[in-house]
């Protein structure tokens, strides 16, 4: 009997050590949310209110509405791998992200809590966990219009510098949707990041580089598809890597398809001649690019900076 109990105890410990932690689904609604419970019955009011409780593999569902960030700071920085899905009705029974239930991430340039970071960023440069769940961003609209400083109320021309007299903050020079990953604590030979950005809109951002930017790591599989990137400076869609290698088989592998990228301006018409590209492909990346609509860029449709391009 004692041997049997010892065996069962040992078997139970093995199960605990080998079964992955279950992910949690969180819910956010601008109109019905209140507090940090973030359940489907009691959603949180803003994504920024629950960032501190997120764990690897969690999934955040966001209803339609305008979200300004925690304390209207206009920036959500997440440091664990999660998925973010927008475009739901307030009861989360229906989803229509580009129609009736638009999930809009913006900010307030005049707010005292204003931050210059990207509007939505999954930053895993310091993440060292073993868990590498798929990362998905699907159905969110990132609009920097409310975060920028403009010359007039018509919002036709941005102003880069702040105005201490009026209290207006500078126009952020960061992208709207940024994901970057690095090495982790998972040293298995086949471990890799699987990242998808789809059905999103990124608009009115004024970065030096990518309005929608993803930087992978060794063997990463990255899909950027069915997005609209419109009226931005720098680069519309930018691919990059945080792993340096000359071996093409180990480089991050990007699939860029069915996107529309329009009106990409130079960051500065005189000084920064390398910006104003619809798509930029960094060195050390492998890219399949097809079925995209690219137009009205100040410089190039596709700027291939020593990357590996297959059309």
Description:
- With 311 residues, the chain is mainly β.
- It has a single domain (22-310), classed as Pectate Lyase C-like.
- 5% of the residues lie in helices and 35% in strands.
- The chain has one helix and 23 strands.
- The protein has one helix spanning 2-18, and strands at residues 25-28, 59-63, 65-67, 76-78, 83-88, 103-105, 120-124, 135-138, 141-143, 177-181, 194-198, 201-203, 210-216, 221-225, 228-233, 235-241, 253-257, 260-265, 277-281, 286-290, 293-297, 300-304, 308-310.
- The strands form three sheets. It has a nine-stranded parallel beta sheet with strand order 1-2-5-8-11-14-17-20-23, with no helix packed on it.
- It is globular and about 50 Å long.
- Residues 1-20 have low confidence and may be disordered.
Summarize the structure.
This protein has 311 residues and is mainly β. The chain has 1 helix and 23 strands.
| Amount of beta strand | 25-35%
The biggest sheet amounts to: 9 strands, parallel
How many domains would you count in the coordinates? 1
CATH topology (fold) name: Pectate Lyase C-like
Mean pLDDT: 91
* Broad shape: globular
CATH architecture: 3 Solenoid
**SSE string, helix = H, strand = E?**
HEEEEEEEEEEEEEEEEEEEEEEE
């Amino acid at each position: 009997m004692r041997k049997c109990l010892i065996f069962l105890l040992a078997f139970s410990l093995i199960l605990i050590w080998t079964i992955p932690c279950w992910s949690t689904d969180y819910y956010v609604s601008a109109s019905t949310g209140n507090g940090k419970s973030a359940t489907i019955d009691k959603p949180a009011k803003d994504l920024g209110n629950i960032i501190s409780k997120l764990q690897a593999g969690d999934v955040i569902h966001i209803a339609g509405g305008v979200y300004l960030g925690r304390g209207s700071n206009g920036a959500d920085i997440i440091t664990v791998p999660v998925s973010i899905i927008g475009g739901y009705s307030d009861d989360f029974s229906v989803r229509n992200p580009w129609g009736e239930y638009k999930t809009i991430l913006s900010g307030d340039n005049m707010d005292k809590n204003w931050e210059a970071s990207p509007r939505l960023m999954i930053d895993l440069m310091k993440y060292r966990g073993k868990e590498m769940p798929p990362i998905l961003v699907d159905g969110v609209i990132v609009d920097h219009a409310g975060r920028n400083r403009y010359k007039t109320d018509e919002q036709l021309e941005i102003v880069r510098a702040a105005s201490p007299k009026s209290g207006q903050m500078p126009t952020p020079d960061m992208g709207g949707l940024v994901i970057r990953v690095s090495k982790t604590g998972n040293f298995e030979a086949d471990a890799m990041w699987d990242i998808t950005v789809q059905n999103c809109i990124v608009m009115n951002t004024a970065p030096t580089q990518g309005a929608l930017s993803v930087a992978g790591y060794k063997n990463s599989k990255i899909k950027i598809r069915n997005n609209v990137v419109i009226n931005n400076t720098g680069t519309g869609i930018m691919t990059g890597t945080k792993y340096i290698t000359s071996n093409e088989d180990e480089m991050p592998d990007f699939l860029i398809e069915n996107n529309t990228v329009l009106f990409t301006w130079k960051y500065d018409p005189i000084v920064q001649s390398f910006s104003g590209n619809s798509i930029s492909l960094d060195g050390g990346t492998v890219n399949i690019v097809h079925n995209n609509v690219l137009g009205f860029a100040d410089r190039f449709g596709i700027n291939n900076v020593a990357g590996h391009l297959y059309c």
